Amino acid sequence: MAARYAELAQTIVKEIAAGQMAVGDRLPSEVEMAGQRGVSRATVRAALDIVESLGLISRKRRSGTRVEATAPTPRYARSIATVEDLVQYAAETERHVKHIEEVIADDALAARLGCRPGQRWLNVRMLRTETGAGPAICWTEVYLDAAIGRRIRRYVRQEKGLICDLMQEKCGVVIVDITQSMRAVKLEARMAQHLGCEPDDAALEIRRHYKDGAGRVCQITISTHAGDRFEYGLRLTR
């Protein structure tokens, strides 16, 4: 038998889907709902946690709990542990390039990228979605070594697949090492707009540094994923 909070969560999801609560409607308080449903406040809180994780409601202090959608928000789940996984990820998604420009790293950008101030990069800003006009998965900023970037710039918009594969095909640059780090961040307003989220919403930032055989960093990517529609899996064995 399912736990009481799970049953309550399922009931609320069904009620929202059936139109008993419309988008924008405010739900009763936890205390009121506990009395109406004949359960404890802790059970209500746990049930609402589940419903919120599905993207159906939002809970904010003072403004209460409101219905945000009638169907669960799609979540993109991906396990990336090898370069082959990255290739598959690129095959399953589409990039939509929004802006390309050459930049010179000032102190702030150099600190963000882990490079020296004054270094030149080709900056590619793009939105990645599921193939077939699916929902937005992430906002990505790519920084390419300027010399390499100038040679492949015109191909970035035209061709699919990984940009690091373009570097190998067009420039003979072979990436042999990719380091990755992740951290929790708040969405900046410019990213939130592209992802269909609110500024300061929770997000996951994934940074990757791509190095060639000489240890030179040829590419840096910073991908920001909306926290409610992306799961990242990693399997550890021993």
UniProtKB/TrEMBL annotation:
The lineage of its organism: Bacteria, Pseudomonadati, Pseudomonadota, Betaproteobacteria, Burkholderiales. It holds the Pfam family GntR. Residues 2-70 form the HTH gntR-type domain. InterPro entries: Bact_HTH_transcr_reg (IPR050679), Chorismate_lyase_/UTRA_dom_sf (IPR028978), Tscrpt_reg_HTH_GntR (IPR000524), UTRA (IPR011663), WH-like_DNA-bd_sf (IPR036388), WH_DNA-bd_sf (IPR036390). It comes from the Bacteria. Keywords: DNA-binding, Transcription, Transcription regulation. PANTHER family: MANNOSYL-D-GLYCERATE TRANSPORT/METABOLISM SYSTEM REPRESSOR MNGR-RELATED, MANNOSYL-D-GLYCERATE TRANSPORT_METABOLISM SYSTEM REPRESSOR MNGR-RELATED. This is HTH gntR-type domain-containing protein. GO terms for biological process: negative regulation of DNA-templated transcription. The keyword Cell cycle does not apply. It comes from Bordetella flabilis. One of its GO terms (molecular function) is DNA-binding transcription factor activity.
